[in-house]
Amino acid sequence: MRSISKKNELSTGRSGSAGFGKKLTKQWQLLLMSVPMLLYVLLFNYGPMWGWITAFQDYKPKKGITGSEFVGLKNFKWLFSRPDFLQSIRNTLGMSVINLVLGTITSILLAILLNEVRHTGFKRVVQTVTYLPHFLSMVIVVGMAQNIFASNGPINQFLTGVGLIKTPIFFLGEGKLFWWLVGIINVWKEVGWNTIIYIAAMTAIDPSLYEAASIDGAGRFAKIRYITLPGIKSTFVILLIMNIGHLMEAGFELQYLLSSSLTIDWAQTIDIFVLKYGISKQQYGVATAAGMFKSIVAIILLFTANTIAKKLDESTLV
Amino acid sequence: MKKVLAAALALTMLAAPVFSVPVKAAEAQEPITLTVFRGDPGDQPAEDNKIYKKIEEEFGVKFEFEFLAGDLDEKLGMMIAGEDYPDLFDGGNSADLIIQNGALINLLDYVSPEKTPRLWAHIEPQLNRIIEKDEDGNDVMYIIPNYGLADGEQIVNQVNGPAFFIQKQVLEWGGYPQIHTLNEYFDLLDRFIEANPTDENGTPYTGFDILCEDWRHFCLINPVQHLMGRPNDGEVLVDINSDDFYTETFIDKPYAKAYYQKLNEQFHKGLISRDTFVMNYDQYIAALSSGTVLGMFDQTWDFNNATFALQDANMYKNTYVALGLVYDPEYVDGKEIEEHYVNGSLPNLRRGFGISVNCECPERIVAMWEEMMSDEWQMLFNWGVEGEDYYVEDGRLMMTEEQYANSLNNNWKLHNKAEAFTQSSPKKQGWIMDGELAGNCWEPANQPEIVFGQMSEYDKAFLSAYGYQKFADFVNPPIELAPYGEAWQIDYTPVDIAHQDFLDIQDKMLPELIMCDPADFDALWDDFVEQITPSATEFGEYMWGAVQAEAAKVLGE
Amino acid sequence: MEKTAVAGKSNKIKTDRVFPVVNTIILVALMFFTLYPVLNTVAYSFNEGTDALRGNIGLLPRKFSLDSYKSILSDAAVYRAAWISASKTVLITLLNLFWTSMLAYALSRKEFVLRKLITVIMVLTMYVNAGLIPNYLLISKTLNLSNKYLVYIIPCMFSCFNMIVIRTYIANLPEALVESARIDGAGDIRIFWQIIFPLCKPVLATVALFVAVGSWNSWFDTYLYAGGKKNLYTLQYLLKMKLATTQASANAAKSTAEAMTTLGQTTPITIRCAITVIATVPILVVYPFLQQYFVKGIALGSVKE
């Protein structure tokens, strides 16, 4: 089926301009379905893009974009002259890779486990309970995490109790552990929520496939491997591509709340950096420059991931 | 595409002034609604609020309040970009931003001895500080300070600002000693904790906590100036005796090293726990509220909630006394340092309501303020309605238990007080100077009958053991306010980045210094000084110039 | 679809018996870890404020008190704000589902000649952001939406992420459905509306959940565009304001050097927890109605026949 549609696509792509116009006329219904939102994003998402000009300005809100002074690449140069900006790029990427890997694996795993539950009531209860932490505010979650990981907190008590360690681990004060703490807290808070999308994807799997496999004598793991996983593969790939594009976003609130001056070298993300030097110090040009840098990297990452997926003959985003 | 964008952009810019919302032009007493923005959070007053009702009856003025919900600088940035200014504009801690962007009108066009005698009398004593020069050198006043213009002798019942704090039970255990120096303080804590390692429930005591979270890091970085005998100047030390107000950052100086070396020593004795450096504010308050933290450097208001929790649990012996510590002579070349933690009262410059350039009836607002400076209105704002909210007995202003409880109840206040408005407006504070009520306080919270009427038996006994009348007696009386005011009020925007670096290095390295191996301390200190010198120099030099400029305003040079 | 390699029979029986038990244990353990913080939050919300400052509360309140709820719910403004929040959430969800799914269908059609171009334009919106000020000026000045109810609706009608999720789902549906309908002479609009849309219930329920929760929880739009209009406050904005106000005593003192006292039996800790509970309960009430669609799955087979 895939090969057929692929051929279709290729032929449309290569058709001449005359054919294009004709085809478009024929596809007026599809066009009608797309145009409203196309105009919508042009206005709401692309309309304000003039703001990127301020990346090259010493922008002052009062003077506006026409009155502010142009400074060339000064804002970018300033950013890249700051060691802590480079550090924040490293931290952002490090934490988002950990988040992406841990988050994806755990949510797919949970989706599979839930899918294997026969009892609908139990399934719904588990599903509801696991997504609840999504609604707790970060302040609450971080507060709990700080108590749990404290020197005299339950985790250290457990580890010293069973004799794994002699002195408590300084979880909250060790820069090198910070990324992993963020990863664990994110999984804890979001795993149930992130699972929803995979559970929904699994509903599209034709139940008769499982029946047929059972008749063929396939075991539980075989069914997971040959039916469930392929069934959610395209969702997985598409989400992965989108998330690779988002690698420059590692969040802000969690790191901000969980970090201390002892861990700041490992905790400061680009977003925190921008808040600290951009908005709070009225360096709007710098904030825009950092945003622009993020966007450009994101787009490069996105299209790279998309191209790789295409090469591997997987579903693609674009 | 580019052209389209440019056109859209031009349109947007043109549109800006055209769309700004016009306020209804106001005739004398035609009813109007004033839009009000306050740069801090708050609750909307109740519809039936009795004070706002009176204001509406008297002045024909209603208010539509907006309080701050998110980040102040972000919000102000939007308002400036769109020129969306309310009529009454309190920019909170970032008021400088709206002033610099020309959002406020010059009040000197409306406030004068002739036009507004009461307001003028109110600001006159501090006029030198309040009036500033704009870019063109003209006299300007954008904001009438909302606090700190008090009548009569300064009221100091307790230390409200910075101090070293110690639990009362420690002093009690030590036989009510006089504690005035750093060594005396830590020595007492050491001895107490050695004799009493845990509280009654077996929870170990923490000797000394240092809160480092975010802007509250002043607990870590501010003490040195006070140990050197100065009140709060933020992050610089001013030599008040020098002719040119010599100003320097103190954190990188040898006399600061002594403090952090002392903390290092105490850390290795176990008096300070490493967890204090990763503690957030909630955990800090929880620790203090549990009564197991014996001492800390902080400011009284910063841990109000913990004090309430301790009082609520009847743990008065675990509440704190503010001590004014100075260095022992051994740390400062044998010099005896005189303690000054409490400063003369200081107008809250550039804080409070300004009137925005979008407001169409500035005269009317100023006239209203003028009228509100009358004793009747001030009594109404501060004490409320006689018979309902307070009573007078033998010329003294009093409150019943119930009235007092009401005055502290937030929900009640939304119906019966106009705090959303009065907190940012010009107001009378201090002592009532004239009339039948002379000798009372403008603010119920300062009225001696209320302050001392609320004191617990434990506290009374504690004070009498020392032979003191009030908790402020533990420190010296206020010194005269320096001509430059307090240096933390100075706007350092021009050296913002250097200042941020300056703070970041302290935040990062001071905990390291406190925790490091004592053998490494000297080397690490040198490293710290080397790292911080560039930003410290830039910030310090700027501040010196600014301190001199502020002082010159007052001294008239 | 490939046919499956078959595992050994004894092995199969063993896993079939052991697996459900292990699975149940894992899921129950997971429930404990996720439920504990939630119940802990509930416990704090029902605790007395000053007592809660001391921390160390587990699954039950230590000193029971309804003060936090009373102080929030006694304010009549909360109910108006809840109405604003609910109505805008319903409107946004319906509009968003309509526009997003329609576009998703169009972009799932591989023969659509503008598919690639439009997809790229849409996808980029997830990664480029002009910054706050230009967006603010667009909505508040150019479109003049400030202090109007529509400011909650108009800027939130579309989300590319959700469009992609729906598109991916549609792409997984059997192509034969569309082809046979087309042979019957149906146009794309009819195919979408009569065949694809009903089949998308699970993913639409998912997306509806995302949109509704996002809309219900947002406070930033009020903060930017309607902060001066208390009639337009949303529940989250109002709750956030209440929390900020409770915390403000210290902040106010910071700026005014005034030690303000706001006594009472509520503190930021308990207010924050009560707010979380109040804001989450409506979602919990609505959730099962959406959940049934994506937990059970739909009988695709029957449609195919």
In short:
By secondary structure, chain A is mainly alpha-helical.
Offer a few descriptive terms.
heterotrimer; A: disordered N terminus; C: 305 residues; mainly alpha; MetI-like fold; 15 helices; 0% strand; flat; disordered N terminus; disordered C terminus
What do these coordinates show?
- The complex is a heterotrimer of chains A (318), B (557) and C (305).
- By secondary structure, chain A is mainly α.
- Chain A contains 16 helices and two strands.
- Chain A folds into two domains: 44 residues; 256 residues, MetI-like (MetI-like fold, Orthogonal Bundle).
- A two-stranded antiparallel sheet of chain A has the order 1-2.
- The longest helix of chain A is centred in the first third of the chain and has 33 residues.
- Chain A starts with a helix and ends in a 7-residue tail after the last helix.
- The relative contact order of chain A is 0.12.
- With 557 residues, chain B is of the alpha/beta class.
- Chain B is 41% helix and 11% strand.
- Chain B has 22 helices and 16 strands.
- In chain B, strand 4 and strand 5 form a beta hairpin.
- In chain B, helix 11 packs parallel to helix 21, helix 12 runs parallel beside helix 13 and helix 21 runs antiparallel to helix 22.
- The N terminus of chain B is likely disordered.
- By secondary structure, chain C is an all-alpha fold.
- Chain C is built from 15 helices and no strands.
- In chain C, helix 4 packs across helix 13 and helix 9 packs antiparallel against helix 10.
- The relative contact order of chain C is 0.13.
- Chains in contact: A-B, A-C, B-C.
- The interface between A and C is large, with 110 and 104 residues.
Report the span from N to C terminus of chain A.
19 Å
Order of helices and strands of chain A: HHHEHEHHHHHHHHHHHH
Rg for CA atoms of chain A: 25 Å
Strand content of chain A: under 5%
Q: Main sheet of chain B, how many strands, which sense, barrel?
A: 4 strands, mixed
Helix percent band of chain B: 40-55%
Summed up, the domain count of chain A is 2
Which residues of chain A form runs of ≥5 with pLDDT under 50? 1-15
Strand count, sense and barrel status of the largest sheet of chain A are: 2 strands, antiparallel
SS-based structural class of chain B?
alpha/beta
DSSP E strands of chain A, number: 2
Broad CATH class of the largest domain in chain B: Alpha Beta
Structural class of chain A: mainly alpha
Number of helices of chain A: 16
In what order do the strands lie side by side in the largest sheet of chain B? 2-1-3-13
Shape of chain A: flat
Percent in helix of chain A: over 70%
